[in-house]
């Protein structure tokens, strides 16, 4: 008996497909796919969320001093002239940051090893670099999903059957985070 479904793909393609779908599920909260794929995704996502929920409060809060560029009312950097060159003016600010304990850092790296980076592109500027931003899916798992599912012992995803796909009659389902 096989430990996993091969999904009719070679190893590299199957792993890439599962990584993409896991990333999209964690980013969007729900995706539509075939039943076999959804069951494989579920096997991967559930332990990730469990790991994040276990390590959700395992950090120290540290105060650090940071040099930050001064900004004017429009949000642009303030510049002054020194020795004939325009130089940005910096100010020192104290900030509170979360410093992960070693076990939380390890958990974060385990999840980051599997998920792909996500770049959010605005609809009107599609194809352009301006306005795009990188989304940290791992931070989303630790900041949103871990506190949400902290009191729950498994069962973080739900599979809802939609119907058969036209063409090959594969059973389509929607997998979502509960």
Q: Which percent bin holds the helix content?
A: 25-40%
CATH C-level category of the largest domain: Alpha Beta
CATH architecture of the largest domain: Alpha-Beta Complex
Order of helices and strands: HEHEEEEHEEHEE
CATH topology of the largest domain: 50s Ribosomal Protein L17, Chain: A
- What class, by secondary structure content? alpha+beta
Provide the residue-averaged pLDDT: 93
Instruction: Kindly report the name of the CATH homologous superfamily of the largest domain.
Output: Ribosomal protein L17
Walkthrough of the structure:
The chain is of the alpha+beta class and 178 residues long. It folds into 2 domains: 125 residues, Ribosomal protein L17 (50s Ribosomal Protein L17, Chain: A), CATH 3.90.1030.10; 42 residues, no CATH class. 35% of the residues lie in helices and 31% in strands. The chain contains 4 helices and 9 strands. The strands form 4 sheets. A 3-stranded antiparallel β-sheet has the order 1-9-8. A two-stranded antiparallel ribbon has the order 2-5. It has a two-stranded antiparallel ribbon with strand order 3-4. α1 packs across α2 and α2 packs across α4. It is extended and about 70 Å long. The model has no long low-confidence stretch (mean pLDDT 93).
